[in-house]
Amino acid sequence: MIAILALFSADAARSSDQWAQPPGQESAEVAKLIDEAAAKMATREQLESVLAEAKYMPLHPYPRFRKAVENHAPVGRLEYAGPEEPGERMTVRLRLTGAKGEPFAAALVYAYQTSAKGFYAQDAAHVQAMAGDVSHARLFAYVLTDDDGWIELRTIRPAGYPNSDLPQHIHLHAEHEGRSLDGSELVFTDDPRLTKDVRKEYEGNRAIIATPRKQDGRWLVDATWVVQ
Questions:
Q1: N or C: which end of the chain has fewer CB within 10 A?
Q2: DSSP character string of 101-137
Q3: Exposed, middle or buried by CB within 10 Å (0-12, 13-18, 19+), for 71?
Q4: Whole-prediction pTM
Q5: Where are the domains of the chain?
Q6: CATH architecture of 75-228
């Protein structure tokens, strides 16, 4: 994978909006709110409502909130960037297969990404902790693949990191039958940051490179993820 830190400028590393702190221990108020949110996740529609609601947005970095989202992962489809989230709407249809094209059914996919500002945290580009972005990104989803290996992620188009040359991307991890599969990144052919040399590096790291198209004002992406 491309060494992210090498792509940041020195000025960016010193920027006050570069790093957010990971969440600390839950206060009584936070714990109560997480319990309330978890109780509202019974259906896909309820889960989507919780993920979009401003009241619960500060909970997104907390491990127990994220675990509740994982425990209620729907099959096939999830909108995890609600209508009030700034940015261009994007739908990603992604099929997980093995090397011979066999679908991975009932695989748990974890996706996370930046906002339209290029931020993982609410007010900063990154979370300052070991695997901080992986563990605490504000825009995230857990989805189970259907019988044919498909998921649909309804979100916004991510922005590249501020003061960086790294292309727009969505991070993807998956588990299948208790086994962790290869992680990957989804990048886009129309991104100016995906230069010829950068694309070669992504190809060498088995990234998913897809071409978005615009339909009725929304970006649409169809892609296949060949997992190991």
A1: C
A2: S-B-TT-EEEEEE--TTS-SSSSSSEE-STTHHHHH-
A3: exposed
A4: 0.92
A5: 23-72, 75-228
A6: Sandwich (2.60)
